[in-house]
């Protein structure tokens, strides 16, 4: 049986699954924060702090009572969360760790060969010494080993000291125990990850079933490629085979793209039709999203559902940028309505708004701009600056 779904219904369901349909002002406890991250599946970490670091802004955009200290406690003291890789560096529930052990094993030969090509033969000469040093002396930052001259036989002199630590982290020997000024503190994984998660093993079949099932839960509906890409744990073929094995528990979904065309068939769990009736309307307020928001993670999916083409132009040469270095998408209700260029000038205590671009057909009405003003004021307060400053050329609606 194929379920027909409108573009509007598809958008609302995906927003709900991505935590963007709940009231953003509802009080968020520490346990609620852990549940929010679990519901999302992961929160990407990025060092760019043009306004706020990505992980903080992702969580703030969903709940504006979010407290940074709760995230630190969950990560560094309670270890209910851990840092590792999905498609990029991310914060994940530690309950997921047994499944990530499969990623470590799968990726190690791939990473070893890739890094050998990058760094040349012998790139791994200091790995055992590094591991032994941490085992004997405890947590380290990359700079600690470099400054101490650890493994001084030459390897640390012709490769960044970070390389061994990063390799051992990527392959599960080390874990991130905390951060100091955003620099990772590395320790043995068994000293960071709670024993019940560190020691637990799941077999291959359980791993694939979990990865596909959890991805589809968070996407609501998806193709086999979207299921595979969500956590970047399984291959598209493994996701395709999983769908074939579970056809009795799944239904096919036919949805309309933002351009009115039929999108590729997707799959959802069998109770999908009943669930559609209970999808909440997202808040009508305007929200500023991080460029690394999980709603935008799959750019093609975002464009199909929302008709919103987006790319981060950090690595685009300035003369070739369409918008700017680090431009933030704007969400209003169930629509992505534009993007905004701004920067937190902490020395001056201002959130400087440079430009606004609204999508075609989106009016710069007084009500809409008032909602944007209110959101920018909330964001400025969260970021720790005193007020929003609109620069002369900030407004360019179209």
Question: What is the gist of this entry?
Answer:
With 398 residues, the chain is of the alpha+beta class.
Outline the structure in words:
There is one protein chain. The protein is an alpha+beta fold and 398 residues long. It has helices spanning 7-17, 30-40, 54-62, 68-77, 97-119, 127-137, 142-148, 155-158, 162-170, 189-192, 195-199, 204-219, 224-231, 236-245, 272-276, 299-306, 366-383, and strands at residues 2-5, 43-44, 81-85, 89-93, 174-180, 183-188, 250-255, 266-269, 286-288, 327-332, 335-345, 350-358, 387-390. The strands form four sheets. Strands 9-10-11-12-13 form a five-stranded mixed sheet, with helices on one face. Strand 10 (327-332) and strand 11 (335-345) form a beta hairpin.
Protein traits:
five-stranded mixed sheet, 42% helix, three-stranded mixed sheet, 13 strands, 398 residues, alpha+beta
